[in-house]
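Quick check before the chapter quiz. The format below is the same one you will see on the exam, so make sure you can read both the input and the output lines.
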Amino acid sequence: MTLIRPTIEQLGEAAKSFGLHFSTAEIANYRQEMQSSLDAYDLVDRLAEEAEPVRYHRTPGYRPAGDENRLGAWACKSHVKGAETGILSGKTVVLKDNVFLAGVPMVNGSSTLGNFVPSTDATVVTRILDAGGTILGKATCESFCMSGGSHTSEPGPVHNPWRHGFSAGGSSSGSAVLVAAGEADMAIGGDQGGSIRIPASYCGVYGMKPTWGLVPYTGIMPIEATIDHTGPMTATVADNALLLNVIAGEDGLDPRQRPHAREDYGRLLGQGLDGLRIGLLAEGFSADGMQSAVAEKVRSAAGRLASMGASTQEMCIPEHVTAASLWLVVGVEGLTAQMMTGNGMGFNWKGRYDVGLIDEHASWRKNADALSAPLKLAMLTGHWGMTQHRGRYYAKAQNLARTIKAAYDRAFETVDLILLPTLPRVASPLPAVDAPLSEIMTRAAELNVNTCPFDLTGHPAMSIPCGLVDGLPVGMMLVGRDYAEATIYRAAAAFEAAGDWRQF
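Here is the expected output.
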């Protein structure tokens, strides 16, 4: 396409939006001077982008219905067989539906994304296939990943495999359900406020949010670059570590990544817990909405770890309570700028942009009423903060986040892991279709008080199923210092080996 040249009237409106005051003659002069710059846009338009190779055959996919998708967890079934050999040979994997799988539709849980079909594979997809994994398709996720419940996805909710009609957690709802239901061995989830760990806890699977930047986010639709994480969700600890081994490491494209040597994240499995120091975070056990039975179940799990050789101690980190407020400010203003007004990609970062996604997602403005209620609320709040207060609260929250991170880092001088409940409750009923806005928002936002602080700080955190309350899974969260995923897996594997968590 050729860049549309502005009329004098259009340029005048643009000037007004910047607070500029030009006469008609001045606008005409500026319009004349713009021509050479606009010619550069035309040249960029004519240049061809280097095409990313798609190396493994895949079927275009379809959305299953009826008994084939009784839990609503499948967004699209496809089939992509990876390399003939590799450490994931024989393993099946599903992708959260914000992950690019070339040739297969991606809607990110929303009706507004239209018919977007990625032309490239995400880095994590390429690595899974190169390692011999088989990708079965895309798992349903919440609308633009903006809910901790599983009731905002299109065209309908995702049901908990333990109790139909109950929430599976979000936003990686389908990823957790398909693993818990045994329809896939592994899944890729995403986590900006708890979206791997929340559904992992509700559905009774293992969900790891790795250290920020450890796993490349290239080819995954972002929400807010400073809190974007992607990671593995599995039915066993060993599989979780195995998948992380495959997907971790720099790809040269994601500016979230810092230089860090790749390692074997499963190297400490089976080592036992002797000498491991674990701190029970008091503020995590008294979080808003905490059900006493959930807190007791997690404390019992901590006692089991102690009986296996770990040393445990109570600890306080008062900053844990304020972290959620900082996260909210970063989240709502950041997502409004990057995911929405920035058309899914935003600006000012080096890496691989997806022009097709930008073009397709920009059309949300034509059907904004169809956006989910949690996203509308976040956009209204974020827009107000940016326009009325110049983004100063986003900036201040990012500055204060370093203080929060330092508080946890000081705790890691005396303990190896921090332990707390993943969520304050077990799964709740899905809201009715005609539920009031207050209920929709409560079910979407009630769960991340313990999870979101570690998206803000970037520390690795994993939800581990540790028992049942009222027949529904409870998650115990283990948090480590940066790049201490192997230590988390060490403790998780020891707990897993102690017996069937369903009986604890």
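If your answer matched, good. Residues 8-46 form one domain.
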